[in-house]
Every structure is written in C-alpha cells, then in structure tokens.
C-alpha cells in the first residue's frame, strides 16, 4: 500500500516545517511530512536537566538589534519566548590557567588583538587568489598558536566569534546582539506555533495525518512521472515532488539513497561542505562555586590542547539557583567525548574545574552529553562552509535535481549555520517549487497537444477514431 501526495517533505526541522507552511498557504494542502524521530524540531531540541529545560542543539537567537528584524526573533516575540541577553565580550578577560590564576587583562587583550589582526591580515592576503590554491597557501602562511592562552583565544575566536574576523551577514543585516533561549516550552515551541497554523493540533499535540513521525526515509526513487519514497519500515509514499530537508551531515552519510543516483556535480558539492560538531555538556552541582557577578557568565580554560574543555558558561542568568555549568566542545573534541562514557567525560571535566577553582569544589551530581555526531539522523550540528570558497559550491548544494528539491540551513546563501538560515531556506525552497509547479501546469496543455499530434502521426486513424469511417483520397 502506498500513500500519495503532491509534495513529500523529508525532515520536520525548522526548514521542513517552514517549507510545508508556505506550500499549504499557497494551496498545496496535500503535503506529507516524513520525520525520522518521534518529534519535530530537528537540531532544535530541549531536555529537562536538573529541574530546568536546557537546549541540546540551537540555543541562541543570533542577530538582534539591527535595522532589519531577524525573522526568528519576530517569531519569538510573537510567542513571548523567554530569552536572556548573552554578552561574550567579557569572556576573553576571564581566562584561567591550569593553576587557577586569571590571566591579567592586558595580556588577554593583547593576545586577542594579535589573533584578530593576524586572521584579518590572512584573509586580505587571500582575497586575490584563486580558489584552488588559496587553502594551501593559507595553511602554509599561517603561524599556528602555541601557548595555552593563544590556543584558548584561537578557539573562542574561530569557534565562537567569527564576526570579529569576517563580517557575517547575520550580524550585518540583523544586529550584533545574541539572546539565549531560557523558556520552559523550549526553543522548539516556535516550530509548534508554526505547525499550528496549517496542521491540526489539540492541546499542543499535532494530530494531523500529514505529519508522520518515526518514518526513516532510506530511498528516494525519481522518474519522469513522479517520486517514490521508501522508509525503513517498508512504507511507500508517492508524490509529484520531494523536498529533502535532511542535514548536510545526513546527505554525506549513507542513510539516504537516490535512484537514479544524484549527478556527480551534486554529490561532489555535498561532500565538499564541512560539518561543524558543537557539543554543549551540562553539569549539575549541589551549589555554586564559580563567580556569578556582572561580566562573569562566560569563562575560559587555557590548556595545552586546543579546545579541551575551553569554553564555559553558568546558567544562573537564565535559571537562577539551577547550579548548572555548561562547557562547549567542538569537532574532534566533540567526537572524542561522544565515543567515551559519560563518567569518563565527567572525570575530565571535574579535573579541569578543580584546576580553575581548587580541589575542594563539590563533585557534579549529574551530567548530560548530547551526541550529535553519532546521531544517524543528524551527523553533526550545522554546516561550516570553507572560509575560502566559491559561490558555485553553495549553489550546487542548493540546486534541485529533477523533481527533488533540497533545503536546510546549509542551502542558505547568507545565513548558513543559523536557525534563521534554516527558516528562510525552507520558505525560499517552497517558493521555488511553487514556481516550478506553476510552470508545469502551464506546460501540460502544450505537452498533451504535442503527445496527441505524435499519437496521430504514429497510430492508424481507425484506432484513434474507431467509430468513424475513413476513405482515401483528397476531400
């Protein structure tokens, strides 16, 4: 048995939901959303920890306070989403060495300024170079940071504060302020609010048959007449078009197969895009032992290994009395921690905290370690396009292949890696699909006429018009 629809959307993250909303609003109501997990949200996910909700994935609304309004900030404002302003600027002045001493402000400021100047100079020197050799020359020309404070600053600069080095559209267009989501409903409530506008819901639950959860799509078969989607449990779905809103990490994996295979230009573009792994580890303590005054929400640990439990944040601003610390790991450190037990990670984190705050601090009572890299439905946190890349790479990742369209934050030309990037990408993809469907409808009469002419030329008249007698000769 198969289920039919005009459009099937694979994935119910913010891109998939916004794409479906645009389609329904424009009259394409027989949309079908297939989601691999038991919830909507994708990489926006909350979980209760230490009696408060914490955001495992996307946690901030970045880009607020500019002349142009961030669309996700508008959604949050309409939903009365509770947020807290995050000021990262003081983090660089709260850098601890392994003996628990804070580096003097002058040393930290000087090291940070040198790191920023070096990065900007490197970028400018590569502007005139062609794409192929730029990466190699950048690597050869760079002088890597060596001391613990240099490594720590390099980490916060490139993993957290890229706007300081390279102007990013998010901050240029929407503003430089960032707000941490601290709402009991979670960041994901914005998706449920969107879904309520076009799906049937009751008491906060989505009961619409157009959303099917726990449907792991494994194969997408495309033909001239439509698309067939097959899931892991043997279900079969048919549609005229498909929108794939799976993450770039999933597209790089072997979870989804396409028949016929995607063209080479498409697969090469997908594989060239980097995937950022961003892991927020949550630790619960019986009481606070860290500074909580103004300008002390974030603090840094300087270690000989880059990114080793470097960036810390306390949750007292968001949830007073929660006694929760968050440490952020990225990329190789994230993958390393995902591969070991939570108890091993807890032991490492406690060793770092005792370096900073002394051996008498209490042991954590609980730990939460998200595993985005090993999650086969995510395979990472967000796309990370090379700093030196051509526009063709993104365009090829974004481009449809026949009846298969692609969306997600990785297809956003200006806002890849951000929640608003995913939101806007879903809308843009649906608008492109609607235009394609409109053109297809306009072409159908012409195609039908052409086919009838072909049929007339190739088929005896007696078969086309069986009730008419034909005579030879000129009339």
Automatic annotation (TrEMBL):
Pfam families reported for this sequence: Amino_oxidase
Organism in which the protein naturally occurs: Camelina sativa
UniProt keywords, alphabetically: Oxidoreductase, Signal
Listed SUPFAM superfamilies: FAD-linked reductases, C-terminal domain, FAD/NAD(P)-binding domain
Origin: domain of life: Eukaryota
Domain Amine oxidase: 14-431
InterPro entries: Amino_oxidase, FAD/NAD-bd_sf, Flavin_amine_oxidase, Flavin_monoamine_oxidase
Entry's family note: Belongs to the flavin monoamine oxidase family.
Gene3D superfamilies, alphabetized: 3.90.660.10, FAD/NAD(P)-binding domain
Protein name: Polyamine oxidase 1-like
Pathway: Amine and polyamine degradation; spermine degradation
Cofactor: FAD
Signal peptide: 1-19
Entry-linked PANTHER family: FLAVIN MONOAMINE OXIDASE, POLYAMINE OXIDASE 1
Gene name of the record: LOC104735380
């Amino acid at each position: 048995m198969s289920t039919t629809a005009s459009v099937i959307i694979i994935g119910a993250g913010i891109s998939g939901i916004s794409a479906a909303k645009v389609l329904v609003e424009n009259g394409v109501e027989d949309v079908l959303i297939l989601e691999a997990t038991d919830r909507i949200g994708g990489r926006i996910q909350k979980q209760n920890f230490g009696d408060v909700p914490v955001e495992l994935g996307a946690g901030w609304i970045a880009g607020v306070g500019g002349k142009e309004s961030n669309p996700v900030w508008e959604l949050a404002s309409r939903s009365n989403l509770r947020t807290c302003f995050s000021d990262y600027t003081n983090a660089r002045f709260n850098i601890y060495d392994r003996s628990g001493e804070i580096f003097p402000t002058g040393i930290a400021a000087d090291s940070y300024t040198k790191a920023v100047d070096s990065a900007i100079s490197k970028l400018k020197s590569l502007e005139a170079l062609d794409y192929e050799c730029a990466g190699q020359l950048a690597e050869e020309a760079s002088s890597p940071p060596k001391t613990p404070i240099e490594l720590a600053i390099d980490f916060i600069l490139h993993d957290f504060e890229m706007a300081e080095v390279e102007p990013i559209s998010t901050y240029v267009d929407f503003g430089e302020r960032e707000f941490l989501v601290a709402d009991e409903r979670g960041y994901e409530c914005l998706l449920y609010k969107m879904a309520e506008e076009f799906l049937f819901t009751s008491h906060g639950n989505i009961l619409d048959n157009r959303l099917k959860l726990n449907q792991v799509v494994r194969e997408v078969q495309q033909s001239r007449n439509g698309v067939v989607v097959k899931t892991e449990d043997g279900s079969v779905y048919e549609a005229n078009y498909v929108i794939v809103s799976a993450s770039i990490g999933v597209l790089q994996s072997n979870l989804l197969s396409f028949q016929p295979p995607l063209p080479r230009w498409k697969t090469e573009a997908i594989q060239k895009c980097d995937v950022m792994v961003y892991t927020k580890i949550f630790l619960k303590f019986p009481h606070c032992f860290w500074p909580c005054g103004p300008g002390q929400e974030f603090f840094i640990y300087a270690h000989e290994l880059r990114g080793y439990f470097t960036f810390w944040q306390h949750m007292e601003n968001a949830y007073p009395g929660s006694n929760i610390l968050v440490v952020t790991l990225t990329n190789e450190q994230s993958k390393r921690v995902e591969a070991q037990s939570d108890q091993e990670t807890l032991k490492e984190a406690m060793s770092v905290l005792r370096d900073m705050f002394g051996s008498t601090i209490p042991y954590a009572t609980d730990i939460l370690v998200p595993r985005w890299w090993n999650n086969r439905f995510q395979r990472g946190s967000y796309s990370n396009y090379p700093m030196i890349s051509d526009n063709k790479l993104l365009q090829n990742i974004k481009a449809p292949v026949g009846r298969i369209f692609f969306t997600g934050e990785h297809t956003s030309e200006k806002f890849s890696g951000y929640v608003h990037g995913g939101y806007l990408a879903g809308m843009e993809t649906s608008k492109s699909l609607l235009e394609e469907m409109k053109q297809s409808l306009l072409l159908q009469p012409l195609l039908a006429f052409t086919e009838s002419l072909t049929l007339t030329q190739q088929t005896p008249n007696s078969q086309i018009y069986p009730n008419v007698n034909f005579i030879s000769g000129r009339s």
